[in-house]
Every structure is written in structure tokens, then in C-alpha cells.
Automatic annotation (TrEMBL):
It comes from Moheibacter sediminis. This is Alpha,alpha-trehalose-phosphate synthase. Belongs to the glycosyltransferase 20 family. In the C-terminal section; belongs to the trehalose phosphatase family. The keyword Glycosyltransferase applies. Pathway: Glycan biosynthesis; trehalose biosynthesis.
Amino acid sequence: MKNKTIIVSNRLPLNVSVEQGDVKVFPSVGGLATGMKSIHQNSESLWIGWAGVASDEIDEITAEKIKKLSIKEKCVPVPLTHQELEEYYFGFSNRVLWPLFHYFMEYADYDETHWEAYKKVNEKFAEIILENLNEGDKIWVHDYQLLLLPQMIKDKRPDISVGFFQHIPFPSYEIFRTVPWREEILKGMLGADLLGFHTYDYERHFISSVSRILRYETNINSIHVGSRTVKVDSFPMSIDYEKFHNAAIEHQLKNEKTSLQIRIDQYKELVPDSKLILSIDRLDYTKGIAQRLKALEYFLDKYPQFTEKVRLIMLAVPSREEVPQYQHLKKEIDELVGRINGKFSTPTWTPVWYFYRSLPFEELIELYTSSDVAFLTPIRDGMNLVAKEYIASRTDQTGVLILSEMAGVAHEMNDALLINPNDDKQMSEALKQALEMPLEEQISRNKIIQKRIKRYNVDKWAEDFMEALDAASQLKEENLTR
Ligand code: ADQ
């Protein structure tokens, strides 16, 4: 049997729907799933994670059907009960780690039962991994829901290579030190042979936390853990460039149009020099959606000459609707969209088109290719793949990217219009600059960015990570034979 890579993440890259015993499987949306999908499809791998339905809300026959459909996709589901999800996922992961790692300290809600559930669920993942593990396999663990997993695997199988990649920021020591279970978390992560982050800053913050909290000896990109050396490095995640670029080319050659494209074309025909501004995110307080809307309001107030000439297409994918802050945010955004549309609309124009749902890939491409400006203003974002997808889809290299300097991706995109997402005035000026930017300037800015994404695509990212894991494992073997 060939050696395989076991990919482990909280969610499998699929969604399951169960209706009257009928089970269906769909691909899921989200940065991690979208990014890792091509690697999973094209290599010897197995993906372990939760399939999206609570195990105590389905009967055994349905569970068996889900398992079988998952295996077809090279996936193994981890059964999680409703209570485990409440405490481990909505509780500890999304009410402690997510807000804290994005610098929303005031949202962190420490609860001992949630922490206990987090440990138990990480153990459950470890058991299922061990059941599916063969000698020579490698394990690649993803993200903040599974921070304890690397050490749990290492305790049982020190011979196996374990890599860990974090998709969200790692905060500065001053923030991280506030977590009551900070030592256990760091020790859990340090079970990996290689720890990867999107940027050098996150890597630096992690090393500094280890050095100051655990007092372990650290170097620029390695940490001494007893007799082991753990490697730490930055790997800025990318996208499947060809998929987006080719889909954009195909879309432009196609005669058939979706109703969305027809509506967009009608608007552009009605007002010939009109411009579309695009905003796409999961509905999350880290993404700065409310601030973005306020900046648009400020812009329309300050520059009335753009009335009827610009439209913001705002796409928000429903996310974590069980967590109170997400419910409040949804309400705030509904109100802001209502206020802006109420204040500025004319009989033939509404400034904001708001979609609160996930869109099929084809429509996503239509939006990327039809929008003159991408307005991406997260308050904090580990990377932000939408920025890369937009640029990859601009086949003629036109289009303007307005990008928050707080997103990991900003480190790779000096040629975008970089803004501070808390600064209404600056965002409004950036909108004006973007809407008036000559095509030659747009092209000359995007050329460099596009070239980089094309060269450093998601396959290259995964390849680099796996090569670094192999190198780190080499060190581990030398240590074991010493
Ligand atoms: P996310 O927070 O999910 O990911 P992001 O990187 O922007 O954020 O990825 C979102 C993905 O969802 C994109 O691939 C996008 O195309 C897709 N998407 C968004 N809205 C959609 C819609 N309405 N319909 C269909 N598809 C939609 C986390 C981190 C990020 C990090 C990624 C990857 O928070 O900072 O970039 O992981 O590491």
C-alpha cells in the first residue's frame, strides 16, 4: 500500500443534507476547503473531519450512508454529538480562540466545560486518525479547532511525521497570554514536527509566546522541545489560479447568461459609465463588513456625483449563526443596508445589492469578472483568499483591489490600494481613487500581483509545506536514533 497524507480539519470538504432518510453530499465553502480541495483530489490522501450533521440527530442507517458517501470522496467522518459541537466548536473554538486570535479580546468567553469538551473532541480526532494510520503515512493537521491534536498523535506515534498549519492569525504574546490554558495549547501545537503560518509576523508571535510562556529555547525558525527540534515557518496560502483564470476565460466566451449576469448587464447598459464594487466574505465580525458599509455611506455623502453610478454587490455567506455576536452582526448589517438604500436610492437605482447566501462557483466568477473594484476590508484576516481569486479572474488584468492592511494577504500585495479598515475617510478616498483609476494604471498594478499568484499557486504552497515537513522529519529521525 502506498504511503498517504492524512489531512485533518474540523470540517470535511463536504456538506451533507439528510431529508427523509435520503442522504446527499455537496462540496463546502470556506477558505480551507476551497484551498485544499485540489490537493486532495490529485494525490494519495485521506481527509478526516466532521461531516456537518450531529451524530445524535441521525439514525445508524443514515450514519452508515454518510460514511459510505464520504469514503467515495476519500473522506472519513468524525461523529460529533450536538453537545460536543456546542461546546467544542461554537464554544471553545469560536467563542475563545477565534475572537482572541483576531484581537477581539472582549468577545472571549472562558468556560471550563467548553475547554474540557475541546480536549475530548481533539482526543476523538486522534483516535480516528490512529485507526486509519499506516506506517510511513504523514499527517497534516489544520487550524485552530485542533491545536491539541499534534501532541496527542505524537504521544502515541512518535515515529509519524506531523505537520500543522494555522489558517487564522497567531496573535501577539500580550493577547495570547490572557488565555487561561495557554501552556496546554502551546504544548499541544508543539507535538508537530513543522508548524506553518501564513505570515512571518504570526510565526514570530508564536515563537515569542513559546519562549516567554514555556521558556523553551527558540531560534528564528525552530524551537527546542526536550530532545526534539520543532520547525516553524511561514507559508502564505494561495489558490488554484488556473481554475479561476480558466473559468473566467470560459465565462467570457459563453453565450448563455445566468439571471445574475443579465441583471448586471442591464445595469451597465442603463448607466453606461457605471461601476460595480464587489464585497465577498463569510458574515463574520472580523471581516469589517459593517465598517465597509459605513465607508460607502460616507463616500456617497461626500461625493454625490457618484449617485446612480456605483453599486456595491455585497455577498455574505451565513456563518456560525448559533453564536450571539454573529446574530447581532447580521442584524446590524441588515439595518445598515436598509439605511443606506433608504437614504440614497432613486426610482431606478439602489446602491447596495445584498445577498445573504452562498453562490455557486459560476456566479462567483461572474461577479469577479464583472466588478470594477473589489472592496475587501477585514479588521483582521489570516490571509483572505478572495483577494487572490479576484485578481486571478481578471483575464485582461483590469480591476482595482482595495485591501485592508490587516489581512495576511496584504504582505503580498503592495500594489493594491491598502487601507486601514477603521478609517472611513481613507476608505472613501480609496473608493474614489479606484473608481477613477485609468485602465493602464490598473493593469500595471495587477500585472505583478497576478504573476505572483500564478507562480505561487495552492499546489506550490502545499508542495513547499510538505517538503519542509519532510526536512523537519529528517531531523526528527536523527533525534530518535541518537
Ligand atoms: P475564511 O475566513 O473562510 O478562511 P477566505 O480566505 O476569504 O476566508 O475564504 C473564503 C472562501 O469562500 C473563498 O474561497 C471564497 O471564494 C468563498 N466564498 C466566499 N463567499 C462566498 C459565497 N457567497 N458563495 C460562494 N463562495 C464564497 C480562513 C481564514 C482566512 C484564510 C483562509 C485560508 O479566515 O484568513 O485566508 O482560511 O487559509
